[in-house]
Design goal:
about 280 residues, mainly beta, four-stranded antiparallel sheet, disordered N terminus
Length: about 280
């Protein structure tokens, strides 16, 4: 017997599937033309883990990238970029990190890029070439970061809240006023971030000048700014030691930098500022 109700929908359905599910006994799934997925079946305490092929088939989209974060074997968040550079998210949403305009958990994939009257949606409306090209999820699942094809960074969830965003949507970090990173874009029209990483709830961005920017968790001074306070604005760690970056790695309260001369630098744990390990 199927337990539960499916919400009334006035949308055109393209496919309905009845399938056996080991954990839930029976699950009915229905897909709309817009790729929304609706479920009815016994209540579950965890979210399903989907393969990339499953997502591609049942959302009816071609996928550029899938990021899945699983915490404690049950708390799951998905951040998916489709071939058109649009963002889809679903899963746990306690900080509003999905960017849906609320903090309600959901199993329904939603195209965040199409949510009207948001900063992200406005970029698509203003620039037809605008796309999201990368996405990462913080280890504590409180924030989702995005990188767009203009080389700018976006964030949701806890990070956005700390910058006064109460709308549970994405904000452009690269446009935050009165910060060093924003000035780089103002001073150089060709400036862009080319890579984003998250390591133990600390964030890293690499720009097209081979500089590394860090922010986020800094509990033991691992971000090299002589404090142990969380950093809210991206800080250029490579300029602090006047080097260009070949690689950077943050793990278990320590940061390691390989510079363009193959010197290795370290900070964190017992070292509160960057020191060279190369002699």
């Amino acid at each position: 017997m199927i337990v539960g109700t499916m919400q009334t929908m006035s949308v055109q359905m393209t496919e309905s599937v009845m399938k056996k599910d080991i954990l839930t006994n029976v699950l009915v799934q229905a897909n709309t033309e817009k790729g929304e997925v609706y479920y009815v079946g016994p209540s579950r305490s965890t979210f399903e883990i989907y393969s990339e092929d499953y997502i591609r088939k049942y959302l009816n989209i071609n996928i550029s990238k899938v990021v899945r974060s699983v915490k404690n074997d049950s708390t799951i968040i998905y951040s998916v970029i489709d071939e058109n550079g649009k963002l889809w998210t679903w899963g746990e949403n306690y900080y509003g990190q999905l960017g849906h305009g609320n903090n309600v958990d959901t199993k329904i994939p939603l195209c965040v890029s199409d949510i009207t009257n948001t900063e992200l949606w406005e970029q698509y409306e203003k620039d037809s070439s605008f796309k999201i090209i990368d996405t990462i999820i913080s280890e504590d699942q409180a924030t989702i970061l995005l990188l767009d094809n203009k080389g700018k960074i976006w964030a949701s969830g806890e990070y956005a809240i700390k910058h006064g965003n109460s709308s549970n949507s994405f904000i452009c970090i690269s446009n935050l006023p009165n910060q060093e990173l924003t000035q780089e874009y103002i001073d150089n029209s060709e400036y862009k971030i080319v890579e984003i990483k998250v390591m133990n709830n600390s964030y890293v961005a690499i720009d097209n000048n081979n500089n590394a920017w860090v922010w986020g968790a800094n509990t033991v001074g691992q971000l090299g700014n002589n404090t142990k306070n969380k950093i809210l604005y991206p800080y250029c760690i490579s300029k602090a030691i006047n080097v260009k970056i070949k690689d950077i790695y943050i793990y278990s309260g320590a940061t390691f930098i390989l510079d363009s001369d193959n010197n290795i630098w370290h900070c964190g744990a017992s070292v509160s500022s960057l020191a060279s390990l190369t002699y």
